[in-house]
C-alpha cells in the first residue's frame, strides 16, 4: 500500500495491472485480443477476479464485533443453507455449495446477517474447503466466544467436474465442531436439524 495515495488509486492500479496480464493470457491461448467481443474482456475479468477475492481486504472478526449483543439465550442458533462461492487454491476454479453454521451463545448473540457475511469473507479468497471450514469456525469461536460452534460445508468443485477426474455428482462434506458440539448428542441434534446424513 505504501506507494499509493489512497485506496482508490491502489484499486485502479491493481485493476489495470491484472487487466494487462489477462490480455496477455487471452492472446497466448490463441485468441485475438483486439476482436470486438474481447475488447473489454481483460478489464471485466480483472474486476471479476478482484470481486471474487475481496475477502483479502476484509476483517471477519471486525464484522462480527460490529453486531454482538448481550443476551441470555443459551440454546442452539442455526443458520443453514448459506450459499457460498469460492475459488480452489490449486486451479483457481470455483467450488460452490452450502454452509451450515451453528453456535450456542455464552452471554452474547450476533446479528444474524453477520454469519453469511463472514462465510463470504473467507470464501472470497483462494481456499481449500477444509481451511474455509476452519476459518469460519475459529473466527466465531475466538470472537464470539460461544459455548459451542459448528460448521458444515457441502460443496462441488469445478476442478473435479469440468477437468481432471470429471465427476459431475460428487459432493465434498467438511465439518468442524468446538465446545458443546464436541458432545455427540449436541452434534447429532445440529446434524439432524440441518438435515445432514452425517449423524
Ligand atoms: N483437499 C482438498 N483438495 C482440493 C480442494 N480443491 C481442489 N483439490 C484437489 O487438489 C488436488 C491437486 O492435486 P494435483 O495432483 O497437484 O493437481 P492435478 O494434477 O491438477 O490433479 P487432478 O485434479 O487429479 O487432475 C486435486 O486432487 C484436487 O481435487 C479442496 O478444497 N480440498
Ligand atoms: Zn482445484
Automatic annotation (TrEMBL):
InterPro entries tied to this protein: GTP-CH-I_C/QueF, GTP-CH-I_N, GTP_CycHdrlase_I, GTP_CycHdrlase_I_CS, GTP_CycHdrlase_I_dom
Residues covered by the GTP cyclohydrolase I domain: 18-194
GO molecular function, one term: zinc ion binding
Enzyme Commission (EC) number: 3.5.4.16
Subunit structure as annotated in this protein's UniProt entry: Homopolymer.
Gene Ontology CC annotations of this record: cytoplasm
Descriptive protein name: GTP cyclohydrolase 1
Taxonomic source organism: Flagellimonas maritima
Enzyme class: hydrolase
Family statement: Belongs to the GTP cyclohydrolase I family.
Pathway assignment: Cofactor biosynthesis; 7,8-dihydroneopterin triphosphate biosynthesis; 7,8-dihydroneopterin triphosphate from GTP: step 1/1
Pfam families: GTP_cyclohydroI
Name of the gene this protein is made from: folE
Keyword Metal-binding: yes
Residues binding Zn(2+), per UniProt: 88, 91, 159
Keywords, sorted A to Z: GTP-binding, Hydrolase, Metal-binding, Nucleotide-binding, One-carbon metabolism, Zinc
Nucleotide-binding listed as a keyword: yes
Gene Ontology BP terms: one-carbon metabolic process; tetrahydrobiopterin biosynthetic process; tetrahydrofolate biosynthetic process
Catalytic activity field: GTP + H2O = 7,8-dihydroneopterin 3'-triphosphate + formate + H(+)
Amino acid at each position: 500500500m505504501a506507494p499509493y495515495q489512497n485506496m482508490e488509486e491502489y484499486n485502479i492500479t491493481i485493476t489495470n495491472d491484472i487487466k494487462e496480464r489477462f490480455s496477455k493470457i487471452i492472446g497466448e491461448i490463441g485468441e485475438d485480443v483486439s476482436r470486438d467481443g474481447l475488447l473489454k474482456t481483460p478489464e471485466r475479468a480483472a474486476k471479476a477476479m478482484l470481486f471474487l477475492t475481496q475477502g483479502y481486504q476484509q476483517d471477519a472478526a471486525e464484522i462480527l464485533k460490529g453486531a454482538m449483543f448481550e443476551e441470555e439465550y443459551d440454546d442452539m442458533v442455526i443458520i443453514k443453507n448459506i450459499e457460498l462461492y469460492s475459488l480452489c487454491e490449486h486451479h483457481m476454479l470455483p467450488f460452490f455449495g452450502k454452509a451450515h453454521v451453528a453456535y450456542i451463545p455464552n452471554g452474547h448473540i450476533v446479528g444474524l446477517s453477520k454469519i453469511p457475511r463472514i462465510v463470504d469473507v473467507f470464501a472470497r479468497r483462494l481456499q481449500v474447503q477444509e481451511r474455509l471450514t476452519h476459518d469460519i469456525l475459529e473466527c466465531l469461536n475466538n470472537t464470539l466466544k460461544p459455548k459451542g460452534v459448528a460448521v458444515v460445508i457441502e460443496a462441488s468443485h469445478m476442478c473435479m467436474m469440468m477437468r481432471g477426474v470429471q465427476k459431475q455428482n460428487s459432493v465434498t462434506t467438511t465439518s468442524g465442531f468446538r465446545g458443546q458440539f464436541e458432545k455427540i448428542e449436541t452434534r447429532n441434534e445440529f446434524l439432524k436439524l440441518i438435515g445432514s446424513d452425517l449423524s
